[in-house]
Amino acid sequence: MVVGYRQPSGERRANLRVATIQGEHPKMAERSGRPNPVALALIGLGALLLVAALLIPTYTLGRLEKIPLDLETTTVSTGEGRVLDAASLTTGTGPAFTENVPLISQRFLTVEEPSNGDVVTLQAGSTLRRTDRQGDSGLLTASVDRVTVDRHTSMPVEDPVGTIQVVADQPAEEVPHTGLQYKFPFNVEQTSYPFFDLLARESFPLDFVEETEINGLPVYHFRQEIGPVDLAQAVPSVTANSLELPAAAWGLEGDAPVRMDRFYSNVREIWVEPRSGTIVRGQEQPYQYYARDAATPDVDVLRATIAFDENTVERHVQIASDAKNLISLVGRTVPIIAAILGVLSLIGGIFLLLRSGRTPKEEAPQAAAATEGYGFGRSGYEDETVAGRHGYGSNAEYESGDFDYTRSDDQPSTADYSDDLTEEIPRTRLRGDQQD
User: Fold this and answer.
1) What are the residue ranges in the chain where pLDDT is below 50?
2) Quick check: 175 and 246 in contact, CB under 8 A?
3) pLDDT value of residue 346
4) Distance (Å, rounded) from C-alpha 299 to C-alpha 83?
5) Beta-carbon neighbour count of residue 53 at 10 Å?
6) Residues 109, 182: contact at Cβ < 8 Å?
7) Taking the mean position of all CA atoms in its chain, how far away is CA 15?
8) Which one of 7, 21, 150, 288 is separated from 183 by 20 to 30 angstroms, measured CA to CA?
9) What pLDDT, on the 0 to 100 scale, is given for residue 263?
C-alpha cells in the first residue's frame, strides 16, 4: 500500500487561497464571520435587566402597597381624666365625680371576611376602662367596629356596609363609614383627609400640621377637631345618650324633671409614616357631657387625655420602618441596581461584538506580523514545502488535515523521492552479532 491524498474540493481550495493571500490562518478565516456568543449573552442580559428596572416599580411595587391580609395588631393607650360615677345620678344627691382617674384604652384589630386581592375587612374591638376598679365596674365604654376598605387607598367601600356594635346584648347596626380609620393610604400627602369618628359615626377633616420625627422616623402630624356632637341624634339606639331625671339628680334646684342629651367633642392628633401609611402614634382628648344646650355643659361624663403608650409607639415605629424599607428596596434600590447592571452588560456585550466582528483586512497586518519567522510569508503559506515536495498536497491542506492517507494499489504514487535527502543510520552491533 502506498500512502496518497485526496484533493480538496474547488470551494475548499478557493477559501484556502483567499485566506493565504490575506495573510490569516484558514481556520481563523472560517471563524471570523461567527458572532461572539458571550457578547450576545451580555446584550440579552442587559436588555432583560433594563426591562426589569422599568417593570418592577410598576407591577411588583403595586403588590406591596396593599394592606396585608394577615394584619393583626394591638394598640394600647393610657392617660387620666375626670370621670362621672354613673350610679350617683340615681341617688338624688347630685352627680359625683372622680378626678385624675387612671385610664387605659385597648384596641385589637384583625382581618375578617370578605377579604381578597382588592379589599380587606377590618374588625376592631375597643374598650376604655378605669384601672382603679376591677371587673365590669371599671368598664366605661366598649365597641366592635367592622369595615371593609380598599387595600391600597384604605378608604371604605360601599358594599358591604360597615357595622358598629356598642351594646353587648344587641346586634350590630349598619353604619356607612366614610373616611379613614385604622390606616392611611400609601404615599400620604401633606393635606387634609376625612377621618371617621366611631363615637360620632361620621367623618371630620383631619388636617396636616407639620413634618416631624418620632424615634428617628420621619412622620406627618395631623390634627382633627370634633364637635360638639349630640349623641342622642347620632346614636339614638343608646338610651343613655338622652336621660330625663329630677333636677336634683342633675345637681339643679327644684324637683321638676329635666331632660339632658349627651354631647361629645374631641381633639385627635395622629402621627403617620408617609411612605407606608402606618399610624405610629395617636392621642385624643375626648370630652363627654350632659347638657340642655351644647354650648353650656351641665354634667361632665368624661374629660381625659389618652395617648399610645411607649411600647405601642415603638412597635408601630418598627412596623412602619420595615414596610418603608421594603417599599424603598423594591421601588427604588432594586430598579437602580438593575438599570446600572443592564447598561454595563450592554456596553460589554457591544464591545465584545465589535471586536469579534473586525474584518480580515483589519486583522491582516497583525496576523502577518505574528506569523513571520514561522514558515509563513506575508502573502500566506509558502508554496514549496516539504509536504508539497513529497506529493502530499499544499501545506494548507496538510495543516487542515484535508487529505486522505490511504489509496488502492491501482492509484500510482506521484511522490518524487529523487531529491529526498536521507542519511543512512550506521548499523549498531548487537550482542548476538558480537557473539558471531
Assistant:
1) 1-5, 14, 16-24, 26, 28-30, 359-360, 363-364, 367, 370-410, 412-413, 415, 417-425, 428, 430-436
2) no
3) 85
4) 10
5) 19
6) yes
7) 58
8) 288
9) 98
Helix ranges, 329-403 (H): 334-356, 360-371, 386-389, 395-400
Is residue 165 within 8 A of residue 150, CB to CB? The reply is no
3-state helix, strand, coil in the chain (%, to 5): 30, 35, 35
pLDDT at site 136:
85
Alpha helices (runs of H) in 124-250, residue ranges in sequence order: 231-234
Contact at 8 Å (CB) between 335 and 53? yes
The CA-CA-CA angle for residues 129, 135, 139, to 5°, reads 30
Cβ atoms 143, 166 nearer than 8 A: yes
How far is C-alpha 392 from the chain's CA centre? 70
The DSSP string of 363-384 is HHHHHHHHHTTTTEETTEE-SS
Residue 195: name the closest of 173, 157, 222, 174 by CA. 222
The pTM for the full model equals 0.69
* Cell output for 37: 456568543
Provide the β-strand partners of residue 83. Answer: 98, 302
Rounded distance between C-alpha atoms, residue 102 and residue 67, angstroms? 34
Closest CA to 277 of 62, 66, 59, 58: 66
Going by C-alpha positions, the residue among 22, 4, 5 that lies closest to residue 368 is 22
Closest C-alpha among 73, 97, 77, 94 to residue 85: 97
For 296-325, the pLDDT digits (tens) are 999 999 999 999 999 999 999 999 999 998
Look-up of cell digits 481550495: 13
- Give me the amino acid identity at 121: T
A 10 A CB-CB count for 381 gives: 23
pLDDT in tens, 365-380: 554 554 444 444 444 4
Integer Cα distance of 395 and 5 in angstroms = 13
Crossing angle of the two packed helices 360-371 and 10-22, in degrees rounded to 10 = 70
CB-CB neighbours of 122 under 10 Å: 22
Distance CA 76, CA 107 (A): 7
Read off the C-alpha cell for 111.
Answer: 382581618
Interior angle at CA 31, CA 28 and CA 34, nearest 5: 155
N-terminal to C-terminal alpha carbon distance within the chain: 36
